[in-house]
Amino acid sequence: MASNGKSSNGVEGFAKGVVSEPSRPSTPKTPTPRNTIPQVVANRMARRVVIGAGIPTSFGMGTFIVSYLLVTRQIADVQPAVTLLVSGGFFALGLVGLSYGLFSSSWLPEPGTLLGFEQIGPNIKRLRNGAVARQSEPR
């Protein structure tokens, strides 16, 4: 091995403590698709989904805890079917809230109204147009 820490084939000697130059991370140059959801809109959707789906889903899980406490402490005799129906109703409401959160978000840079009901129609049209455009693309 040569005194500079490199062997005759150019490989650095690890044991010699020679530090190589840090390699530059290669960033892949992938084009961004035209039909992606803007980050501002995605954040808006996420907030609405957390509220619209998260709260009812939490209530659905809480139904089991409340039912358990009511039965074990002999406060009320809650039938398992009632627990199942109530929690299932909350979970279904969470599914509706998930869809509402996605379809009620404004795609404009400035936020829309508080509830966003006026955005549901145009967003469903965007979804349909995107599905039709994908079907017409050659594979």
Task: Please describe what this structure looks like.
This protein has helices at about 40-70, 80-105, 120-135. It is built from 3 helices and no strands. The chain has a domain at about 40-135. The mean pLDDT is about 80. The two termini are about 55 Å apart.
Quickly list its features:
139 residues, mainly alpha, elongated
Radius of gyration: 28 Å
Low-pLDDT runs? none
Query: Structural class, from helix and strand content?
Result: mainly alpha
Secondary-structure element sequence? Answer: HHH
How far the N terminus sits from the C terminus, by CA atoms, comes to 56 Å
Shape: elongated
User: If helices are DSSP runs of H or I spanning 4 or more residues, what is the number of helices?
Assistant: 3
Helix content: 40-55%
The profile of the biggest β sheet is:
none
Oligomerization category of the chains in this entry? single chain
- The chain-level mean pLDDT equals 82
Strand content: under 5%
- The strand count comes to 0
How do the strands and helices of this protein lay out in sequence?
Blueprint: H1 39-72, H2 80-103, H3 120-136
Brief sketch in words of this structure:
The chain has three helices and no strands. By secondary structure, the protein is an all-alpha fold.
